[in-house]
Amino acid sequence: MKKLTVGAQVAKKIRKGIQLLDAGDFPESLEMETVVELQDQSGQLLGTAYLSQQNKGIGWYIGTGKRKLDSVFYHNLFQAAKSKRRAYFEDSHTTAFRIFNQDGDGFGGLSIDLYGDFALFSWYNAFVYSQKETIVAAFQSVYPELAGGYEKIRFKGLDYESAHLFGQEAPANFTILENGVSYQVFLNDGLMTGIFLDQHQVRGSLVDGLAAGKSVLNMFSYTAAFSVAAAMGGAVETRSVDLAKRSRELSQAHFVANHIDLEQHFFHVMDVFEYFKYAQKKGLGFDVIVIDPPSFARNKKQTFSVVKDYHKLVSQALTILNPKGVLITSTNASNLSIEKFKAQIEKGFAGIPHKYLATYRLPSDFAVNQSDESSNYLKVFTIQVEK
Ligand code: SAH
């Protein structure tokens, strides 16, 4: 195995527990797609890493000592990750959740989600992808009970992004359960699946009382999963707003899966800022407003970035929030710290009295690397205005 010497700062970072390696950690040009031994400047072994270009970073530290990436290594990783999630496997009201999460489970560059009887693999770089046969065989030895698997390609260079991987094929779409609510999902249509599993606690809060008897506005709704959760939790009316044309049909499918009458549930295919204007003009008001934008968004007129512009969503939402109403503010931007996110929200409130009712970060199935704050990318606040 090739040995690479890293500088003092990098050795310190690795000893602290950070597993993601940056291009800046290695000044010389590197041979990529390979496993290396890292040592500090005094020649002391730091551990094993692999190098591969990905969206963020150029590789992952995978543990102390000399590690061999063979089927035993992967089997043990998957077994440990499975044991950690026993409570999820035992809960018959939830059949979709994350069963392996990158560095939080000791191996960055790979995540695996469970959707009922099927596994969904996400490969984040060419190196993990090249290990696919060994990884899938080890996975199947830990999960013999699963019917089949699919894969998503989350790095550049291949001519496909989604495919069937092993075992039986899943129906084109089928329903999973979460907190007792049904959602319609699809495993082989682009990178999306119809639901973002990392929000299950927030949806759970809507099912469990936050939305009871309330009118709910869901901004950037995608398939309206928050609206369905709210409806199942007793919301009297939901409105879901998303630019994507396909969102309407996919949203209705979630409602139909739960046998909910669509009469009091509305879908608006439009820009959220246009909807704010429309609602202000009509004098509409909502008891709960969910705001969950993508990190960057572009429409014909403007670009939007959560880092700079989140406050605008908050101030707009406040103009159509009913007295004592609740905002659910969410972001998955890993480049926005929780402090800066809060600062954006406070700027939007501009002194209007409010209190924070709850904070959500990634749920425990999305295991995070405790030493690396940026791996816990999800930040959600439930906030109530005081008047
Ligand atoms: N809240 C959703 C996930 C949102 S994903 C959920 O819980 O499932 C981001 C969504 O924002 C995408 O569906 C995209 O179509 C939509 N979007 C992006 N820019 C928008 C805009 N300006 N107005 C309305 N929707 C927008």
Automatic annotation (TrEMBL):
SUPFAM superfamilies: PUA domain-like, S-adenosyl-L-methionine-dependent methyltransferases. It comes from the Bacteria. Keywords: Methyltransferase, S-adenosyl-L-methionine, Transferase. One of its GO terms (molecular function) is methyltransferase activity. One of its GO terms (biological process) is methylation. Residues 5-61 form the RlmI-like PUA domain. Residues 169-335 form the S-adenosylmethionine-dependent methyltransferase domain. It holds the Pfam family Methyltrans_SAM. InterPro entries: PUA-like_sf, PUA_sf, RlmI-like_PUA, SAM-dep_methyl-trfase, SAM-dependent_MTases_sf. PANTHER family: RIBOSOMAL RNA LARGE SUBUNIT METHYLTRANSFERASE YWBD-RELATED, SAM-DEPENDENT METHYLTRANSFERASE. This is Class I SAM-dependent rRNA methyltransferase. It comes from Streptococcus suivaginalis.
